Amino acid sequence: MTGTVYTETVVHLAPEAFAKDVPYQVAIVSLEDGSRITSRIVGERVAIDDRVKQVGIRDGVPFFRKLT
Amino acid sequence: MRPVAVAGVGKTPFGAFADRDLRSLAVDAGEKCLKNGHVNPGQVEAFYLGNFAGPSFSGQNHLAPYVSTALGIRDVPATRFEAACASGGAAFFHAFSAVASGIYDVVLVVGVEKMTSQPTARVTEILAGAGDCSGEIKAGSTFPSLFAMIARRHMFQYGTTREHLAAVAVKNHANGALNPEAHMRKVITMEQALNARPVAEPLGLYDCSLISDGAAAVLLIAADRARDFVEKPVQILGVAQASDFVALDQKPDITTFPAVRRAAEKAYAMAGVTPRDIQFAEVHDCFSIAEIVALEDLGFVDRGSGGPYEASGATSRTGEKPINASGGLKSKGHPVGATGVAQICDVVAQIRCEAGEMQLKRNSLGLAQNLGGSGASCVVSILGNV
């Protein structure tokens, strides 16, 4: 599954459940069907309009990586 | 529908109070308010409590009668309202509706939150409960990060800058320094705001409101009876509540909050005024970007121009549209359930010329905007002299 970054942020202050991941990037990704999903970004940081590809899923949360 | 007035207000200072629990804060504000409105507890016909997460912060539930009985208010309906950070506003709106419809003549509204009993990471987790826990929150979103994503998109679509965001923080801290009851009475510089440690990029520490304890109360009385109690009742000219998706990723455009626009349109129509007529406002600056978006959604400025408007100084105490003369959530503090009620208290204080060093010159028509979550709930209230 591929998509486009609609918006993103890098989180520095997180609840305990995610404290070990800090800093981590969260993005809202627009999918090809027009829907959007809040997801995590792995690897290189992304910016708005970057193309991304899903590389995994954890607890229902999709993980995306920048398409190069 | 009949006219309704605010006949009394009361607040605790906002801050971190290790020796105060939720009930003692709420009772303090409630007692001050009843005294201010010259009303005895026995005359109160219903009690509305705004509180977001008392059960999560302290374990105590069933909060409305827990507080009302401590105020000496017995037998009457006592109910808690929860609408995330708009809990106080929601309690106020529903209290207004009940008095306006003729069910009651005298109603007490109290908003309260006791937050500092928990460490910041746990507070962040509790606040995240105002988001969609089945999606965005599971992905690691926090409230700062949701508003950070709004800021990023606003910057992308409209060219809003970090300096525009910082201008909000600098202005609200300058205002809050004049407020003896503010949590953080500290003037900050543009450099401090820009160089603060990041919380969720592009938002830094000074872009975020505070974790505070506090309570606020207002007394609503049917307008035709209000002068039996006080000399200077303030009229509620318009008030409306609206709702929208809880999850940010379900909104078609995250740079605007439809719930704010709808609530504002209804409140303006009810009051028979336009955004231009509003002389000053208390808006929900939970994050710096939220104040910028609020100015646009309330119709004070065109979409996308909130940032430059803030940077121009137009929203300062001496500008054409003073915003958050109290210091806002940023400096005054943000005890979540208290915030919407405190905004009403601050607007009323301005209209009554009781705002001390914070007093504005043009003070006869004010607006309060209270936002819940990332825009899923909103209450807009317009108050004035009649």
Walk me through the structure.
The complex is a heterodimer of chains A (68) and B (386). Chain A has 68 residues and is mainly β. Chain A is built from no helices and five strands. A five-stranded mixed barrel of chain A has the order 1-2-3-5-4. Chain A is globular. Chain B has 386 residues and is an alpha/beta fold. Chain B has 14 helices and eleven strands. In chain B, the strands form two sheets. A nine-stranded mixed sheet of chain B has the order 3-2-4-7-1-8-11-10-9. A two-stranded antiparallel ribbon of chain B has the order 5-6. In chain B, helix 4 packs across helix 14 (336-351) and helix 7 crosses helix 11. The radius of gyration of chain B is 19 Å and the shape is globular. The mean pLDDT of chain B is 97. The interface between A and B is medium-sized, with 29 and 34 residues.
Can you summarize this structure?
Chain A is mainly β and 68 residues long.
What brief labels describe this structure?
heterodimer, A: 68 residues, mainly beta, 5 strands, 57% strand, globular, B: 386 residues, alpha/beta, nine-stranded mixed beta sheet, two-stranded antiparallel sheet, 14 helices, 37% helix
Overall body shape of chain B: globular
Largest sheet of chain A: 5 strands, mixed, barrel
Question: First CA to last CA of chain B: what distance?
Answer: 17 Å
Overall mean pLDDT score of chain B? 97
SS elements, strand count of chain A: 5
Please give the order of strands in the largest beta sheet of chain A.
1-2-3-5-4
Assembly category: heterodimer
Please provide the ordered H/E string of secondary-structure elements of chain B. Answer: EHEHHEHEHHHHEEEHEHEHHHHEE
- pLDDT < 50 runs, ≥5 residues of chain A: none
* Secondary structure: number of strands of chain B: 11
What helical percentage do the residues of chain A reach?
A: under 10%
